[in-house]
């Protein structure tokens, strides 16, 4: 495992820093204990009894995604590629989040399914359900491992704890509050963690900008350094995509990232959808991703900009070091882009604020891992264990199973942390996983939701062949047959998975028999009565500021302005 010379990164945490950390951990575990008192059924444990208000689920929706990989990975991307990294937010998140709230949540919430794979079971039958459930469970364990690895390496470098001690302590804390209070504990902690992360990153960004002479100083220094002026504007983003052609780069960003990867992640990824499903009403469920879109569009300013500042102020990442890393070689200093945020914290933060910053980083790692665990235990317990292994048991049996599965998932995540340690930029790892699992699922989902003719056989075969197509692209890239620097490989793999899934699904549908229309009511758009997709507009759901479509329109306009401005 890469370790930058420990002396370079070791932060001299004072007593006040440790007190702040200890207080934070007590608070997190206390929330888990209090949430446990509200858990009496499996629905309470896995979906918070569908009882939470929209602002809570909306912040949890974002915090669940604001994990280690988002905070560290996006700052690494900022150091490596500059402002084009904002595409992961303004192109690769906001449009899909708005689509989820306006179009897809009525189907999820209205059908009363407990998970995304359960929706697949009702629409396409057991084969597609099994493929989706198993692949989702695998992906969550791999991503949870990445969160754990990052957390451990950070604690090791900042505080001097050994990697394994860091991994086990962090895993135990997340395990305790998730196993105690289920989704409610995870969600309430995610809301707390959202504010802790902001408290850590906003001062870091402000102090960093002051150090480089403000925004204009940062632009001057980045433009004059390795990577140059293309890193100062989000479009066309050639360095990020790996395409020499501006047209192909924009096409890759808009279709590969903005459509396939983004819609695949935000609209079918149960980690996110689960938070909206925990809402107390259809209106709250629809507003959850839309409320989340507002903070999401401004997060680039506190994760990407610190990475850009690090690349022009931190000795280990400047000049020849950055050029070597851009060329795919080891930096003379031994640093990697993943170290950008830590190195900047080391250089600019005094004690006291340092404790808040470390708590913020730990919060981001734990939020991400808790989201992985809470969605894994729901899908494994409901969609695999209850459906295929132990059917028709009392509800208390599945509640206990969920807690046991959480323990097993934590142990597996400790194992998969080793895989994540082999990547110098963890966003590469993450986008690769999404191209395998999310891109084909989105193709199957969107086709099945709007095309009533699509058959059960098409559902599972499209998923399998779409995933295989992404794996083939990945293998060809690893062998050097396809030469796509940047994150172009995952964009191309996602497009291949989507196209192959659609082609196979259409082909198989033409030679197989569809389900009767009466079995597809509530699962296919054209066969679902409009009344079932509507929500209350009185009481707690009244007021113009609670109208999902209006809120989505405001968010869309702001996002377009940001794309033009930067």
TrEMBL record:
Q: Where in the cell is it found?
A: Membrane
What molecular function does GO assign, one term? D-glucose:sodium symporter activity
**This protein's UniProt keywords:** Membrane, Transmembrane, Transmembrane helix
Q: Which residues cross the membrane?
A: 15-35, 55-76, 88-109, 130-152, 158-180, 192-210, 247-268, 289-312, 352-375, 396-423, 429-450, 457-477, 489-511, 549-565
Secretion signal, residue range per the UniProt entry: none
Cellular component (GO) terms are: plasma membrane
**What is the recorded membrane topology of this protein?**
Multi-pass membrane protein
Instruction: Output the Gene3D superfamilies linked to this UniProt entry.
Output: Sodium/glucose cotransporter (1.20.1730.10)
A Pfam family of this chain: SSF
The family line of this record is: Belongs to the sodium:solute symporter (SSF) (TC 2.A.21) family.
Identify the NCBIfam families for this entry: sss
Protein name, per record:
Solute:Na+ symporter, SSS family
What is the organism of origin for this protein? Amycolatopsis sacchari
